[in-house]
Amino acid sequence: MKKLWIGTSWKMNKDSDSAQAWASAVLPRIEKLHPQLQPFVIPPFPYISSVSSAFDASVMKVGAQNMCWQEEGAFTGEVSPLMVKDCGGSVVEMGHSERRAQFGETDETVNMKVHAALRHGLTPLVCVGDSGKEKRWGVSREAVIKQVKIALYEVPDHQIPQVIIAYEPIWAIGESGIPATPQEAESMHFAIRRALRELYGADLADAMTLLYGGSVNLDNASNLLDQPNIDGVFVGRTAWNASGYVQLLEIANSKFSS
Ligand code: PEP
Question: Could you say which protein family the record assigns here (predicted)?
């Protein structure tokens, strides 16, 4: 049965002490989770090693917030898939709207990174999202599906189950974000699933993990997780302190207790 993924990216926050403190506080709770829950954390690069050594990799997945599509060479400032693995990372986030807007990430580079991650057995976590303007213009679906299709260009059937898509509406992310309602999120997830079905057939598409991210908090997480096409949440601010993250895990865990 499909797992419910509950994860956070710390973005460019924390130092080594607070990274360790987060891991130590989360660790005891992680060991008692329902096996169908998949926790994950994506620290900044310098803390991937220490955070991944704090956890059993079979329980908590640790990832990187970006990655180069090349293995090695003259790519100053970049981090390769081999390095991510070497540090204990197994997931790679790519295409986050902040990277698209501020660091030149494009649909095409996301596609190259998807292939690089898959070549090295890493899980690509592809972020896609519509802007506020696209929402107002009524073209959100087209915008998001285009990002999904280019990200998955030439990804073969046998590799597709390893790819995770996170729908992160730009208008919902961060301090000024307004969270998507569970209905809005589900409607986009349904559209993404339908596009995936057209590309890969129902069985493979239905087996894929689709996460929602954008101002997920302790009040809206439960309803979001109840939506049929939402297979987990990808969380920023609410999960940066260990207690917020643990409470999100409790909410997700309660879905399996009845
Ligand atoms: C994000 O930036 O991807 C995100 C989900 O952040 P937040 O939960 O803080 O809106």
Answer: Belongs to the triosephosphate isomerase family.
Please state whether the predicted TM-score (pTM) of the whole model is above 0.85. yes
CATH number of the CATH domain containing 240: 3.20.20.70
* CB of 170 shorter than 6 A to ligand 1: no
| pLDDT the model gives residue 258 | 62
Domain ranges, residue 97: 4-254
> Ligand 1 within 6 A of 44 CB?
no
Contact 107, 146 (CB under 8 A): yes
What is residue 204's three-state secondary structure?
Answer: helix
The number of domains in the chain is 1
Ligand 1 centroid to Cα of residue 97, in Å, is: 10
Residue 234's SS3 state is strand
Percent composition of the chain: helix, strand, coil (DSSP 3-state, to 5) = 50, 15, 40
Q: For 18-71, write each residue's pLDDT tens digit.
A: 999 999 999 999 988 999 999 999 999 999 999 999 999 999 999 999 999 999
